[in-house]
Amino acid sequence: MINASLRYHSITLSLALPLLLLSTAMAQEKTKEGYTKTWDRPITVVPDSMLNGTHKLPAYTIAVHEADAGEVIDLWKADMKALSREVTGSKPLRANGVVLTELGTAPVNLAVMAVTEKKSDLSRLTVAFLATDSTAMPAAPEQEAYVRSLAVKYNKAIVQKQIDAYQKMLDRSSEKLADAQGDEAKLKQRMSKANNEVAKLKAKRGKVMADNARVQGDISGLEKKFALTNDPKDLQRLTKARQKLAKGESKVAKLMQSEAKAQDTVNKYQDKLPKASSEQQDITLNKEEITNTLNALKRKQDNIR
């Protein structure tokens, strides 16, 4: 079993082109999290090596973009859990008894190592096919094809994480919009109820004022009659009419106060409506932006081949 420390050889000249393309990609439009929205990077398998003591083992290296080494190793471990007899070690990790239909029916042993390149925003995964701890299996095109399939699979998996993150954002945005629409509907309902209350109070006040006007007319007639008759009974009627008018005027004053209070409630709701509408517009615009980014990430994933 390989348990000695390993190191990566210098990146070969054949990596120059992918790195050049990477520098171009870094200038692409990105999300606020730093995800590129498009994919124009080549999937490249680079012949490489692992050094174990004095034994130099041939290997293949691939790039997994926008991921750190830990994420890449986790993806590889998840694969090996289903395909291998066991996974041991740390640097490198070793999977024993791996069944890869791409390479035939006989189980193989793999050694892998991953390193993060922060400046390039990628990780490099190096894979060696082992015959023994100190020797590699004979090179075969199927090995390179398998490693390339890992590059496609793992890059798609990393973008899937980005897609999942934006799907959650979209779901939250949809919930916020539904809540905002519900709040606005309740606000309009309350304002409608307050408007109805104002209308009822106005109608009631108008009726009381009309009654007061009739009583005022009665008072004028009674005043004239009492001035002529000076009859105590006419004075009693006049006094009752004046008391009735006083009560009516007091009722009008109270109704006016209630009406003003109800109108204040209407105004309060009216003032809140523009803010509620603006909030919905902001959420809608944010939702559209999230949707556009989500669709771009899905296209990006589709282009990883």
Could you outline the blueprint of secondary structure elements for this entry?
Layout: H1 16-25, E1 46-52, E2 55-65, H2 69-83, E3 86-89, E4 93-98, E5 108-117, E6 122-130, H3 141-229, H4 232-302
Antiparallel strand pairs: 1-2, 2-6, 3-4, 4-5, 5-6
Helix pairs in contact: 3-4
Distance between the termini: 34 Å
Shape: rod-shaped
Sheet-strand content, in percent, reads 15-25%
Helix content: 55-70%
Number of distinct beta strands: 6
Short description:
By secondary structure, this protein is α+β, with helices and mostly antiparallel strands. Helix content is 61%, strand content 15%.
Q: Could you describe the 3D structure shown?
A:
This protein is α+β, with helices and mostly antiparallel strands. It has four helices and six strands, in the order H-E-E-H-E-E-E-E-H-H. The protein has helices spanning about 15-25, 70-85, 140-230, 230-300, and strands at about 45-50, 55-65, 85-90, 95-100, 110-115, 120-130. It has a six-stranded antiparallel β-sheet with strand order 1-2-6-5-4-3. A hairpin with a 4-residue loop joins strand 5 and strand 6 (about 120-130). It is rod-shaped and about 135 Å long. It starts with 15 loop residues before the first helix and ends with a helix. Residues about 1-25 have low confidence and may be disordered.
